[in-house]
Design goal:
Layout lengths: L13 E5 L5 E6 H4 L7 E9 L5 E6 L10 E2 L2 E3 L7 H13 L5 E12 L5 E12 L11 E7 L1 H10 L6 H13 L1 H8 L3
Helix pairs in contact: 4-5
């Protein structure tokens, strides 16, 4: 099976439950973590930039339970039971984009977002920045489309069509610009 069609996740995988201070409190299936209003669990979001300083965006696959077909950050997921954040981020970069990247941890925050009857996200999310090659191969079971976007154009799209983007992406992008702008500039510059 090619990397573009490899099954890499399941609703049965156990995620790490945490409190608001990121202390581990237990484990629960991914499905149960996203039921109802969601159960607070550890997660991560990666913002990856090419050599021209453009951000890689992904359009979530139509089969995703939450926010299918929405544009989001380059890669996002959860560490599984027993995984460190380093192992989980490296695994997911391979699972979704078939790449490796040196990642820089920037910050973490908790949020909750409902997606109607389908469930919710309730995550303590660790946010990272990194670089990727100018060409990546998406796992089509996870990602419907990929595109690199200039950050100025992204701002225009967020203003004009905010409902096309995932809620966590909008929160994270705003925080990166407002509270971590100097670090972000280092990644949006041409290499």
């Amino acid at each position: 099976m090619s990397n573009a069609h490899r099954i890499v996740s399941s609703e049965a995988e156990e995620l790490i439950l945490v409190d608001r201070d990121d202390n581990e409190t237990g484990h629960l299936s991914k499905a149960a973590c996203h039921d109802g209003d969601g159960v607070l669990h550890r997660a991560f979001s990666l913002f990856l930039f090419d050599s021209a300083g453009r951000l890689l965006l992904q359009k979530r696959a139509a089969a995703k339970r939450l926010w299918p077909g929405f544009w989001s950050n380059s890669c996002c997921s959860h560490p599984r039971r027993g995984e460190t954040m380093e192992v989980a981020t490296r695994r997911r970069l391979q699972d979704e984009l078939n790449v490796e990247s040196e990642l820089e941890y920037i910050y973490k925050f908790a949020y909750q977002a409902d997606f109607g009857a389908a469930g919710a996200e309730h995550e303590l999310c660790h946010v990272y920045l990194g670089r990727v090659p100018d060409a990546v191969q998406a796992n089509e079971l996870e990602i419907e489309a990929l595109r690199f976007v200039d950050t100025g154009l992204l701002e225009q799209e967020l203003d004009a069509t905010p409902d096309q983007f995932t809620p966590w992406f909008k929160l994270e992008w705003r925080a990166l610009n407002e509270a971590h702008g100097e670090r972000l500039k280092d990644f949006t510059r041409t290499v």
